[in-house]
């Protein structure tokens, strides 16, 4: 790894998206509360992502993705525990949006994005899922209003933001 370069402009950008970043005093409570930090034995570390954000370390955050912000499960434990009311998950969402603009994001999000375009659901209801829900006595799920969702996705330019290469719409009802 080359010498780290503090990028004040990038830091300003992150703060503009969410001012609560400035309140962090690096106590580490977020990392202690984080279940992903626990199971990855500290490889994933929310405090570190916040530190890198405070220093505007763009290359580490956006290009190298160390720690990998996509590992956050958005469980909100860190947000609940943070003594300074830093909105970590909002800051992470903003970082993810910046990463998406570079195209260097996990393939799983393309798969989910394409499923939303096609079925209006990130995880389409397959026969095994429906059967399992019935076995567990769970209520059936209404299928999504694809037309309505399609309008929202069009208004937000969603299709242009994700990679639809290699995906083709299957026959409706073929799931
Ligand atoms: S818990 Fe809050 S103040 Fe402490 S390191 Fe994490 S974000 Fe910063
Ligand atoms: S929201 Fe993300 S960073 Fe915060 S505790 Fe949950 S997994 Fe960890």
Give an account of the 3D structure.
The protein is mainly α and 175 residues long. The chain has 2 domains: 8-102, Alpha-helical ferredoxin (Fumarate Reductase Iron-sulfur Protein, Chain B, domain 2, Orthogonal Bundle); 107-172, no CATH class. The chain has helices at residues 8-17, 29-33, 35-39, 46-54, 58-64, 77-81, 88-102, 107-119, 127-135, 146-155, 158-161. The chain starts with 7 loop residues before the first helix and ends in a 14-residue tail after the last helix. Residues 170-175 have low confidence and may be disordered. One iron/sulfur cluster binds next to α2 and α4. Residues 24-30, 47, 50, 82, 84, 86, 88 line the site of one iron/sulfur cluster (SF4).
CATH homolog superfamily of the largest domain: Alpha-helical ferredoxin
Total beta-strand segments = 0
What sequence of helices (H) and strands (E) makes up the elements?
HHHHHHHHHHH
Alpha carbon gyration radius: 19 Å
First-last Cα distance: 46 Å
Helix vs. strand class: mainly alpha
| Net shape | globular
Largest sheet: none
**Count of discrete alpha- or pi-helical segments spanning 4 or more residues:** 11
**What small-molecule ligands were found?**
iron/sulfur cluster
**What is the arithmetic mean of pLDDT?**
89
Poorly predicted runs of 5 or more residues: 170-175
Q: How is the CATH topology of the largest domain named?
A: Fumarate Reductase Iron-sulfur Protein, Chain B, domain 2
- Annotated CATH architecture of the largest domain: Orthogonal Bundle
């Amino acid at each position: 790894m080359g010498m780290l370069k503090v990028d004040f402009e990038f830091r300003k950008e992150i703060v503009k998206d969410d001012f609560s970043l400035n309140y962090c005093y690096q106590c580490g409570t977020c990392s202690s509360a984080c279940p992903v930090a626990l199971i990855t034995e500290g490889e994933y570390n929310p405090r570190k992502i916040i530190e890198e954000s405070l220093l505007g370390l763009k290359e580490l955050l956006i290009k190298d993705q160390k720690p990998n912000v996509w590992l956050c499960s958005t469980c909100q434990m860190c947000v609940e525990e943070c003594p300074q009311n830093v909105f970590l998950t909002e800051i992470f969402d903003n970082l993810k949006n910046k990463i998406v603009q570079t195209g260097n994001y996990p393939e799983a999000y393309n798969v989910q994005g394409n499923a939303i375009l096609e079925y209006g659901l990130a995880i389409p209801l397959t026969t095994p899922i429906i059967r399992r829900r019935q076995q567990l006595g769970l209520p059936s799920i209404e299928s999504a209003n694809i037309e309505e969702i399609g309008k929202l996705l069009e208004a937000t330019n969603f299709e242009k933001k994700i990679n639809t290469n290699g995906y083709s719409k299957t026959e409706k009802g073929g799931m």
